[in-house]
């Protein structure tokens, strides 16, 4: 977004500069600022549309009583193109926001989903296959372990757990920090964001668009007490 607006400013400036006096320059500068503000407003509205699921997706999710969002591939859009930090490649189930500044709990990059981004915060992902999202609850095999998991509240231990979360297996179920995208599969995520939130969600990759963006149906399984980290 910033690069785009700077380019527009340069092009508009070069093509319209005709001021010969200080006063004329001030007037032309004011006109340019108005044009840039209009472009910013228009691009912000277009950005909202790009980030939204299609109407058919919203209807399908509502019929099944699920939440829904679109997530964009980071390698395509996180290049200072969008106003929202992260270019729509992150999503917060807690705040239902795409901004990296608003407790990001999942991301999409190179056709992989990931959890755990900054500080000691971390999380777990597991792919349950083609099981119906509606049937998932905290007692489902593979979900119960995450539902009963207690995150450490000391920074040193939290960072050890963050490292373990990259890959481990319990009862033949694999948990990772990063998993490949498989359209039609249902996943479970536990996202532990210290001092911000701790949630357990189940979600299904409903479909994938030509640009690589995903439409994801999801439901909250449990919201835990906010984990407060005792830093060293």
Element layout with pairings:
Blueprint (H helix, E strand, L loop, with lengths): L1 H15 L5 H30 L3 H9 L3 E5 L2 H4 L12 E2 L14 E4 L2 E3 L7 E8 L14 H5 L6 H10 L2 E4 L2 E4 L1 E3 L5 E8 L3 E12 L5 E10 L9
Antiparallel strand pairs: 1-11, 2-3, 3-4, 4-8, 5-9, 6-7, 9-10, 10-11
Helix pairs in contact: 1-2
Structure, described:
The chain is of the alpha+beta class and 232 residues long. The chain has two domains: 2-50; 52-70 and 113-223, no CATH class. It is 31% helix and 27% strand. It contains six helices and eleven strands. It has a five-stranded antiparallel sheet. A hairpin with a 2-residue loop joins strand 3 (106-109) and strand 4. Helix 1 packs antiparallel against helix 2 (22-51).
Question: Any key phrases for this structure?
Answer:
five-stranded antiparallel β-sheet, 11 strands, alpha+beta, disordered N terminus, 232 residues, 6 helices
Largest sheet: 5 strands, antiparallel
Binned strand content: 25-35%
Described by the principal axes of the CA atoms, the overall outline is: globular
User: What is the strand tally?
Assistant: 11
- SS summary, helix count: 6
SSE string, helices as H and strands as E: HHHEHEEEEHHEEEEEE
User: Would you tell me the structural class of the helices and strands?
Assistant: alpha+beta
How many structurally independent domains? Answer: 2
Low-confidence stretches: 1-14
Q: Please give the share of residues in helix.
A: 25-40%
Mean pLDDT: 89
Enumerate the strands of the largest sheet in spatial order, edge to edge or round the barrel: 1-11-10-9-5
Distance between the termini: 39 Å
| Radius of gyration, CA atoms, in whole angstroms | 22 Å
